[in-house]
Amino acid sequence: MSTFNIPTREEVSTNNQAIFDNLEKALGFVPNLFATYAYSENALKNYLDFSNAKTSLKAKEKEVINLAVSQVNNCDYCLAAHTAIGKMNGFNDTQILELRRGRAPFDTKLDALARLARNITENRGTTDNEVLENYFNAGWTKENLIDTIALVGDKTISNYLNNTTKIPVDFPAVPSLEEVFV
C-alpha cells in the first residue's frame, strides 16, 4: 500500500500548478508519476526538462530504451505508460513484449539498442564489451551511446520513484513477462 497520495493541483506549489495546467492541456490529464514529482518544488520541472531534452535518438528509439530499462527495474507504472507510448510510436503488442525482454528480433538496429539498454541497466553501467561492439556494428554512433546512457538514467529515476512510492498506475495495466511467456 502506498504511503503517498497523489497530490492535487491545489496541494502543489504555484510553479508546479502551472506545469500541471500544461500537462492537462497536452495530455488531457496529469499522470500520477508526474504529480508525485511535484512533492518537490523543483523535481517535476527538472525531470520534464531532462526527459524532453534534445537527443540524437528518435521517439521510437527512446521507447525501446524505456521499455527495456523499465522491465529490468520491474516498474509496473513505467511499463504500462511506455507500452501505451510505444503503441503510439508504431510498435505492436508482440514487439513491445520483445522490447521489454531487451531485444528486437524484428529490427537489427533496434535489437542492438534494446540489448545495450538492458545490459547497461542490469550491470549498473558496466557494459559488456560484446554488447557494446554489437551496438556500434549495428550503426549506432558514440553520440547515440551517450544519449542512450542519459536516457537509461532518466528512466531509472522514474522507475525508482515509482518503485519507492508505489503510486497507482493510471495507464492500462500490462501483463508480466512471466504471464505471457509461460
List the helices and strands and how they pair.
Blueprint: H1 14-27, H2 32-37, H3 43-51, H4 59-72, H5 76-88, H6 93-100, H7 108-122, H8 129-137, H9 142-165, H10 177-180
Helix pairs in contact: 4-5, 4-7, 4-9, 7-8, 7-9
Protein architecture, described:
This protein folds into 2 domains: 9-51, Single alpha-helices involved in coiled-coils or other helix-helix interfaces, CATH 1.20.5; 59-180, AhpD-like (Up-down Bundle). The relative contact order is 0.16. It is 64% helix and 0% strand. The chain has 182 residues and is mostly helical. The longest helix is centred in the C-terminal third of the chain and has 24 residues, at 142-165.
- Total count of helical runs of at least 4 residues: 10
Helix content: 55-70%
* Uncertain residue ranges: none
Rounded radius of gyration (Å): 17 Å
Instruction: Find the structural class using helix and strand composition.
Output: mainly alpha
Average predicted confidence as pLDDT: 96
From the coordinates shown, what is the CATH architecture of the largest domain? Up-down Bundle
Q: Strand portion, in percent?
A: under 5%
SSE string, helices as H and strands as E: HHHHHHHHHH
Question: Biggest sheet: strands, sense, closure?
Answer: none
Do you know the CATH topology of the largest domain? AhpD-like
Number of beta strands: 0
Can you identify the CATH superfamily of the largest domain?
AhpD-like
* Alpha-carbon distance between the two ends: 28 Å
User: So what's the overall shape?
Assistant: globular
Q: What is the domain total for the residues? A: 2
CATH class of the largest domain: Mainly Alpha
